[in-house]
Design a protein that fits this description.
Blueprint (H helix, E strand, L loop, with lengths): L4 E4 L4 E5 L4 E4 L14 E5 L4 E4 L2 H8 L3 H9 L3 E6 L5 E6 L1 H8 L6 E4 H15 L7 E8 L2 E8 L2 E2 L4 E4 L3 H15 L5 E4 L4 H10 L4 E4 L2 H9 L11 H36 L2 H36 L5 H10 L5 E11 L2 E10 L2 H15 L6 E7 L5 E9 L1
Parallel strand pairs: 1-4, 4-8, 9-13, 13-14
Antiparallel strand pairs: 1-2, 2-3, 5-7, 6-7, 9-10, 10-11, 10-12, 15-16, 16-18, 17-18
Length: 398
């Protein structure tokens, strides 16, 4: 039977519930039991980030333009939207390569951050207690002298999960107090599992006005095991690419069907006309080709004149050199379009990589790392009509 697991990336260990107690292992517990079913992993990692959406952006993020909003700020990341039930939203996000690594843990059906799992469990407990779930809480889970501490206010985590071994207890409690004082957070309740008297005494002394509520580790993992797949989570990037390819194939099939019908109509028309009309049509085609060639020449000269007139500013050339330099070796720019609007230059284009999806993913991650210095440039990926992945990028030069 597959198990839902907690993965602490810093220590490279897995935690699961065997039906009687919580257990740690350096081996993925699903490896030997993989045989179908659904299992989830809650990840504690410095590579997973969280940002609350500013109130001024909530309206834009919840209306019909939400996809455009998310694509603008998080299009190059793997992300999902969390809702605290009080008209406020937050975004969990990470590099796609990180999420791919978590999905490589055998038997995993979906991935969520550990602090988001803790938030959902606390909402469940507070509903049972008929208590306010938008307060300021500390969630402590301890197993085999390994502690995980999460601070939650108004339904969102305040900072990344603190995970440590028992010999670092005092140092991390001091760090916790310092972080809470810095952010001005006053704790109302502390949720603790286990019966570590020393820890309970220390935490009670640090927060004497906070109420302490004990919970059972088995209840925590039972809640985790019963989590539905509809719960917001990180999508598997490989599955997402596969779905995108299926969608592209469907559109290609529709296009090919229409094209075949069109070709049949043309062939029937050609066979039904006589030689004279065919000859005249050929003459017209030749004339159209000549006109088309002249039109292209005129457009080329106009574009050249427009570029010379509007792109004389000396600073654009160094920027374009910087832009081109961030593309990894093996990645080719297919198109680059620059448009001037008042005092702003809008840049957009596409690029591609030879070598298949694996080479593409590696080059794409390198591109995102190299692009950190270009604040106004945004990157995303898609598939072309031949099912080949390519890069889309756009931005402004002010």
């Amino acid at each position: 039977m597959l198990k839902n697991i907690i993965y602490i990336e810093e220590y490279g260990i897995y935690q699961y519930f065997d039906g009687g107690k919580s257990v740690f292992s350096h081996d993925n517990p699903n490896e030997a039991e993989y045989g179908g079913g659904v299992a989830a992993v809650a990840v504690i990692s410095k590579n997973i980030n969280f940002s609350a959406i500013y109130k001024k952006d909530i309206g834009r993020a919840t209306k019909s333009g939400s996809l455009k909003y998310l694509s603008k700020y998080y299009g190059s990341k793997s992300y999902f939207v969390a809702f605290n039930g009080s008209k406020e939203y937050g975004i969990y996000y990470s590099l796609p390569s990180n999420i791919k690594e978590y999905y490589l843990l055998k038997g995993i059906d979906f991935v969520i951050p550990y602090d988001y799992l803790a938030i959902l469990f606390l909402n469940f407990l507070n509903e049972k207690l008929n208590a306010d779930k938008y307060g300021r809480f500390i969630f402590v889970e301890e197993t085999e002298n390994i502690y995980k501490i999460t601070v939650i206010t108004n339904g969102f985590s305040v900072f990344p999960v603190i995970s440590f071994k028992g010999d670092m207890l005092n140092e991390n409690l001091s760090l916790l107090i310092a972080k809470l004082n810095f952010k001005g957070v006053k704790i109302e309740k502390i949720f603790i599992n286990g019966n570590d008297e020393d820890f309970n005494h220390n935490i009670n002394a640090l927060f004497p006005e906070a109420g302490i509520i004990n919970f059972n580790t088995g209840d925590f993992f039972e809640f985790f095991d019963n989590m539905e797949r509809q719960t917001p989570h990180f999508e598997n990037p490989n599955v997402k690419l596969k779905e995108l390819r299926i969608k592209k194939n469907r559109l290609n099939n529709i296009y090919m069907g229409a094209l075949i019908v069109f070709i049949i109509i043309i062939q029937f028309t050609i066979l039904s006309v006589n030689k004279k009309i065919y000859t005249e049509s050929r003459g017209i085609n030749v004339l159209n080709s000549s006109i088309g060639y002249l039109s292209r020449q005129i457009k080329y000269e106009r574009r050249k004149a427009f570029f010379n007139e509007h792109f004389e500013s000396p600073y654009i050339l160094p920027y374009l050199k910087r832009l081109i330099s961030i593309f990894p070796k093996g990645m080719k720019i297919k198109s680059l379009i620059i448009t001037k609007v008042k005092n702003i230059y809008a840049v957009k284009g596409t690029a591609f990589v030879f070598g298949g999806y694996r080479s593409f993913a590696k080059s794409y991650d390198m591109l995102l790392e190299n692009a950190s210095s270009l604040k106004n440039m945004h990157f995303s990926y898609d598939l072309d009509k031949f099912e080949r992945p390519y890069i889309k990028f756009y931005g402004n030069i002010k």
